[in-house]
Structure formats: C-alpha cells, structure tokens
Amino acid sequence: MSLSPAALLITVAPTGAETTKSDCPQLPTTLSELVGAAKESEEAGAAMVHVHIRDDDDRPSLDPERLKDTVAALREGTGLVVQLSTGGSVHDPFEARLKVLDATPDSCSLTMGTTNFGDDVFSNPWPFICDLYQLSQEREVVPEFELFDLGHVAALARLIARYGLPYGGKVHVDFVMGVPGGMPGTTDALVAGVAALPPEVTSWSATGIGRTTLAVGLAALSKGGHLRVGMEDVLTLSRGVPVESNAQLVERAVAMGALAQRRPMTPSEARELLGCR
Ligand code: KMH
Ligand code: ZN
Hints:
Layout: E1 6-8, E2 10-12, H1 31-44, E3 48-51, E4 53-54, E5 60-61, H2 64-77, E6 81-84, H3 94-99, E7 107-111, E8 115-117, E9 120-122, H4 126-139, E10 142-147, H5 150-163, E11 172-177, H6 187-196, E12 203-208, H7 213-222, E13 226-229, E14 236-238, E15 241-242, H8 246-259, E16 262-264, H9 267-274
Parallel strand pairs: 1-16, 2-3, 2-13, 3-6, 6-7, 7-10, 10-11, 11-12, 12-13
Antiparallel strand pairs: 4-5, 8-9, 14-15
C-alpha cells in the first residue's frame, strides 16, 4: 500500500487592500508585479491565488476592466486557480463588489457576515450575502466562504439550507483569524470553528493575520486543514524581519506542510477539490 502524503492546498494572497505601497514597497500592486508574484508562488507550491487589485496610484480598486485584464493575465502567466476578492476594501460599495463576478474568475471570496475590522467595519449584511451567493451560482463561480467569526459558520449553514450547494457541488471555507474584531488566531478558536462546520463542507483552510500566522498554520495542519498565506495577511517572518516576497511565505508553508507529511497540491488537484470549471 502506498503511503503518499496527503495533498495540501496552499492559497497565496499576495496583496490585500489594507497595506500601502509606501509602507511596503515590496507589496505587488501593479499587474506585472502581481503576475510575477503569482508565478513565483506557483513555482514555490501555491495552487490558488486570492486577488485584490490596485489602481495606477496603488490604491485598492474594483475597476471592472482592470479585474478582467487581471484574470486574463493570471490565466496567461500561471496555472493557478484564480480567486477574486469580493470583499475589496472596507470602503467598497456592495454594487461594485457584486460586479466582481463579471470578470469571470474561477472562484470568489464570500464573507459570511459583518465584522469589525480594526477601526473599520467590513460590511456583509445577510441580504448582500444572499445576492452574492445566488449570483455566484448563476455565473458558475465557486465561492470560498470567508469565516471571520464563529457566527459566520452558523450563517453558512443557514445559507446552504436556503439556497443549496454552490456551483460545482463542493463547499470550501477559509477561516480568517486574528483580525482585530474577529475571532482570535488561536488553536482553541480553530478547533471550535471546525467542530461547528456544517456537514456539507468538503474542505477548509485557515489563515492567521499578523503574528497569529504561525499558530493558525500549525493548528490547521494538525487538524488536517489547508493553508492560505501571503502579504495580504502578514508582513513579517518573525519580529522585525520583513517578508521580502510572497513566494517566501509559500515556501515556509510548504516546509510546514512537509513536517506534517503533506505535499503541495497542484492547481489541477485544487480545481477538483473546489469543483471549479
Ligand atoms: N479587505 C477586507 C476588508 C475578501 O477578500 O473577501 C476584506 C477581505 C476579504 O480581504
Ligand atoms: Zn482578501
């Protein structure tokens, strides 16, 4: 009997909407920087990319044409599963967030509730969640449910009960932990979240923001989950040591996975896991 290691989905989140280019010049904000970071991350072992884009002044953007060009460029330059953020920045209106699906990504993020987000509010009221979910089903885009809090897990069960399974028939969630205002980035919180997942969930990953990144990553591996890493979520490797590239974080995730006898999943395995086209 072969005992090949179980596959580990590594998602890279290279940019996010919160960090400024002036605070972090190595953050990939232009299209060519983003594609470069995605290529390097794929070579390092990532199978999916979670994408936020910026405008010409490096500010967060949901510009429809830019989003389409970004999806095309990532498809051209990489084999990664392309997941567009529908969360955007805390300032983005619901209408623009729904329009993200016009760019025909493979996957989209879908946050399961409103959460305090540092000093801001990341707004995801129930009617917006329902609209976005139904649109993802219509457009055949696979959602990744982002869970910032235990209540978001309960909201996911309610959503599936009301509207059925996502396009593709699989249910993949990502625990986003350690946001000031959301659930803490601890093993205890992750264990509670995983225990509460509805039975329809077929796979889950976790990411710990800032200094919780290692605790959450190790806890996720010990529970058999998958990992999301990237400069959207963490900007230091250890206290005072800046991240130089997204690939560096992917390499670290691969090394952590190797200790847990997991090998990086390929993009085509990820497509199968997630039920993407
Ligand atoms: N930037 C946060 C306000 C997502 O991508 O869907 C929302 C976020 C979640 O990053
Ligand atoms: Zn995001």
